[in-house]
Amino acid sequence: MYGWGILKTLGMTLHHFIMTYVGDIQAWLQRRRGLPAATPGRAGIFTIQYPSERRELPERYRNLPFFVIDAQTEQLRCTACGICAQICPVQCIWIERARDPETGRPRRYPLSYYLDVSLCMSCGYCAEFCPFDAIKMDHDFEMARYRRPGFMSARDLAKPEAYHAAIHPAGYAEEKKGQASEPPAQED
Amino acid sequence: MVGTLGIPIDFPTEVWERLQERFPGMLRPAEPPELGDVDSYPEAREHRMVRAVSRSRLMNRPRYEGVLVHARHLLPVLRFLRDELGYRYLANLTAVDYPEPLEQFPPHIDVVYHLFKLSGGGYVTLHVHTTREGSILPSITPEFPAANFQEREVWDMFGVQFEGHPDLRRLLMWEGFDGFPLRKDWREAYYEEEHKPYRSRFPHGGSPLYAEDRTPYHANIRVSGEVPQDASSLNEEDFSLADRLLYERMLSADRDQDKPLKTEEMILNMGPHHPSTHGVFRMAVRLDGETVRHLEPVFGYLHRNHEKIGERNTWLQNIPYTDRLDYINGMTNNLAYCLAMEKLLGWEIPERAEYIRVIMAEFSRIVNHLLAAGFFSNELGMYFTGALYALEERELVLDLFEGASGGRMMFNYMRPGGVAQDLPTGWLDQAKALVHERLPRKVRQLEIFLMDNEIVQARSVGVGVMTADEAVAYGVSGPVLRACGVPYDIRQAEPYGIYDRFQFDVITRQGGDVFARVALRFDEVWQSLRILEQALDQIPEGPIQSHRLSPSMRIPPGETYGHIEAPKGELGFYLVSDGGANPYRYHIRSTSLLNLTPLSLLTRGVKIADIVAILGSIDLTMGEVDR
Questions:
Q1: Residue whose C-alpha is closest to residue B515's, from B336, B323, B359, B373
Q2: Distance from B141 to chain A by nearest Cα, in Å?
Q3: Which of B403, B407, B454 is facing A62, going by the closest CB pair?
């Protein structure tokens, strides 16, 4: 029958509309019981009411890089090897290796480390290729600013190891396992 | 006896090589026979041709594919390949600039043609050399319409004139732009060094500088060879040339001299904004009343010289950039580029990684096809209902992508030799639930929602019809090609990865119209779900990466054309390596751009409201069109 398709289509939209409210009532009941409200994949619209509701970010979610402050030494883990500056596709990492003032030999920490956060494409290569687990990708995505932040130093972007362990539980466990099995890197 | 292709046919390769070693430069193949001679070998023709192609090693560079053809034999050879041997599908046409003399060649520009058979079985590469100054080649567009945009792009980017091209305007840059950006001696604004990583970044640091501080903006615009001191000295006339050529073309093309009524025609510009919310695109339309007489697409508003960036980057640095081409299908872009690299590297991929790649690629196809169909409702003016229903399902697939790769659109997930990370725990169960329970139900709903709707049918059946022969000649690919009844799917014609292990059908539809193109996308979603069911069941445990990657990874010298069946069609990467850490040439056979080649043909004579429906049924992403 001509027009049956249109009726089906309209019925579908109506069903979707009603299911959205049914879902909303269910979510409201969930919230009253203190359970997480957002259930992606339910019927109807499943929009999350950000910022009052928040989606749980997957562990591998990546935003800007941050620099891990080691729990034992309380220093940046970075050894200024420069691999991150090499692999960075947009070349937004500027790094200068510290030198011993007397001998002039390179030291294993950065003299200066700058990251142009307005250029960073969040590809995660620096974290992936860092041999010392010194860079990790952050989960903080609320970065709106009134001014261009531009160059940020490693100190500005540093976060404690406990934070890294909290947002990357599986990755952190693997890292610890790897450290236990591998001999510590030789000092040069 | 000697073939047209400049190398001896039926001549043992070793003997030929020994002779050349012994008498360098003194022996050369006899005069290439004219077309008539080639035609006079009816029986052995195919046999000889194929052997000639596989044996070629012309430049003194390993793995230089294909054969070298003199410009004056190009058309006869192409005709021969097309008409006699069945290489009907001109997939890719691009160029490589060699400003330094190679071992036996002076500085030249090498124009490369890749041809395929629709029955599968490898490709044929032809190389034609032309000089860097005043380079002129015969245009093949009159006989191979598929070359239209590609020749224009080569003219735009390399400055190779194609004699006989009906409309040789620049494709991506504006007329009057000075220089040819993909030549090796052309330097972009904010030029810093030939190759990344830039030396200023490590270990001496220096003071960090913003790019715009390093090179002031105004000093980098060049028009007609002069470098103006500031932007105010640019003449408006310099920029108006672009439109003058376009409008001349608009007024002259497809003129009907015997029109019974001398009605006045008008030129209407659709764009450059989002004519169908796809990106910044412009269509200049010549209208007679509401009927389209001629349509000319205008590109380049999103052009960022991706290929030049790719040649500055190291091999690995390009992977996140490919995400930004067709930003709906980052996964398949990654995959195509990694497959091309692996072809040059000769790497084997671990089993589990192959499965992960197939799973990601098929999810990507589902997302793309649902979006294409959903946004098609948008194109027809059913504002956003269908699109948002499609986006709901896409969100769920993106959750999966994000869980595995960390990005919802910019995945950076594939690597040469495997994938970046293994799937997280619980990922497969989540994916299975989606594939087995939710997606079939929702896809069916969306299919009924769009395809059974009489209004959609009235707007799309019989609109924008393309025949199978036209589709092949114009070089369209993917669902657009299969909707014309051509069963060409690279997953089955030339299975890459492990596609030969899965049961699925290549769906075709016979209509060739807008309806067939959209309906075919739903058919393909069902096939993708079939593949996913098998892949999610069979995926083994094991390693996901075969090699330890180094940031300054080098690739052995050679060239290759790697292509996959991306959701929108054939996505190819033509890579030339000179053995360094950066690609020497990095060309993308852009699906979206080349599927637009017949747009002018499809829209001739339709009503203006149908233009957007036709455009939507082709399914394009401007990030890939303009690159």
A1: B373
A2: 37
A3: B407
Put simply, the answer to whether A12 touches B453 (Cβ < 8 Å) is no
CB-nearest to B420 from A94, A97, A128 is A128
Distance (Å, whole) CA B435 – CA B432: 5
Structure tokens at B459: 């707007």
Residue A131: Cβ-neighbour burial (10 angstroms; 0-12, 13-18, 19+)? exposed
Q: What is the edge-to-edge ordering of all strands in the sheet holding B89-98?
A: B67-69, B123-130, B108-116, B89-98
Residues of A in contact with B411 (CB under 8 A): none
- Are B196 and A91 in contact (CB < 8 Å)? yes
Q: Classify each residue of B343-359 as buried b or exposed e, where b means 16 or more C-beta atoms within 10 Å of its C-beta.
A: bbbeeebbbbbbbbbbb
Exposure class string for B419-443: b at 16+ Cβ within 10 A, else e = bbbbbeeebeebbeebbeebbeebb
User: Is-contact B67 B9, C-beta < 8 A?
Assistant: no
* Closest to A54 (Cα-Cα) out of A140, A146, A162: A140
User: How many other CB atoms are found less than 10 A from the CB of residue B252?
Assistant: 11
Contacts of B548 (CB under 8 A, 6+ apart): none
Instruction: Give backbone dihedrals phi and psi of A71, rounded to 5 degrees, phi first.
Output: -70, -30
- Residues in chain B closer than 8 A to A13 (CB atoms): 385
Task: State whether A89 and B321 contact (CB < 8 Å).
Answer: yes
Which residue in B has a C-alpha nearest to residue A8's C-alpha? B449
Structure tokens at A63: 């935003």
Q: Which two tokens stand for residue B413?
A: 């997930």
Helix (H, G, I), strand (E, B) or coil at B293: strand
Q: What angle do CA B312, B314, B316 make, to 5 degrees?
A: 140
Asked if B365 and B446 touch (Cβ cutoff 8 Å), the reply is no
Tens digit of each residue's pLDDT (9 = 90 or more) over B312-326: 899 999 999 999 888
Calpha distance B192→B186 (Å, rounded): 12
Tokens in use for A82?
């420069």
> Percentage of chain B surpassing pLDDT 90?
15
Q: A-chain residues within 8 Å CB-CB of B409?
A: none
Q: Which pTM was predicted?
A: 0.84
Q: Is B237 exposed, middle or buried (0-12, 13-18, 19+ CB in 10 A)?
A: exposed
pLDDT, one tens digit per residue, over A94-141 is 888 888 888 878 778 788 888 888 888 888 898 888 888 889 998 888
Min Cα distance B199 → chain A (Å) is: 9
Give the sign of the dihedral formed by CA B478, CA B484, CA B486, CA B492: positive
Residue with tokens 């993917």: B478
